[in-house]
Amino acid sequence: MPYYRCVVPKDSVPYEQRAAVAKAFTDIHCGNTGAPRSFVHVVFDEVDDSWDTAYFLDGGNRAGRSEEVKAELLSDLMGAFREITGVSSEEFSGRITEGPAKWTMEGGMVLPEPGEETEEWYSHGQAAAGG
After folding, report:
1. CA pair distance 55, 95, nearest whole angstrom
2. CA distances from 99 to 50, 61, 75, 85 (A)
3. What b-and-e string marks burial along 116-131, b requiring 16 or more CB atoms within 10 Å of the CB?
4. Between these two residues, 16 and 102, which has the higher pLDDT value?
5. What is the mean pLDDT of residues 101-105?
6. Coil, strand or helix at 59
């Protein structure tokens, strides 16, 4: 269950940009990992002026991908957010943390380790999304 939480100042990112970010993040995650689109979750949390960082991406994924894939994923996500919102690199920080696949369920199934996905798992992901 890839989960991307975008922390943003209150009223700073309009709905249309949020929708574009969510689509871009889904495209990027699925393009880099092969995960079903229905498994990608993107949320926005608005914060007041007391937050230390103006904009922050807090992502969570299952562990087991190569360092190259992880670096490309973070770079692509950060770049898409900046391009869509116009937020500068200086205002935007981010990270992706990882947990074992067995700690995550999606659609009632425990996630397999990266590279151990089966056709049944992919089919179940599509069914859970209603597709």
Report:
1. 12
2. 29, 7, 20, 29
3. ebeeebeebbeeeeee
4. 16
5. 78
6. strand
Say how many residues make up the chain.
131
Residue-by-residue DSSP string for 28-40: HHHHHH---GGG-
Helical residues (DSSP H) of the chain, grouped into ranges? 15-33, 67-85, 119-128
**pLDDT surpassing 50 at residue 108:** yes
In DSSP notation, 99-117 reads E-GGG-EETTEEPPPTT--
Query: In angstroms, how far is CA 96 from the centroid of its own chain?
Result: 9
- Would you tell me how many other CB atoms lie within 10 Å of the CB of residue 5? 15
Q: Cα 108 from chain centroid?
A: 20
**pTM of the entire predicted model:** 0.82
> Which are the contacts of 101, defined by CB distance < 8 A and separation ≥ 6?
62, 63, 64, 110, 111, 112, 113, 114
Give dist(CA 25, CA 20) in Å, integer. 9
3-state secondary structure of 9: strand
Residue 70: phi and psi, rounded to 5, are -65, -45
Cβ atoms of 57 and 97 within 8 Å: the answer is no
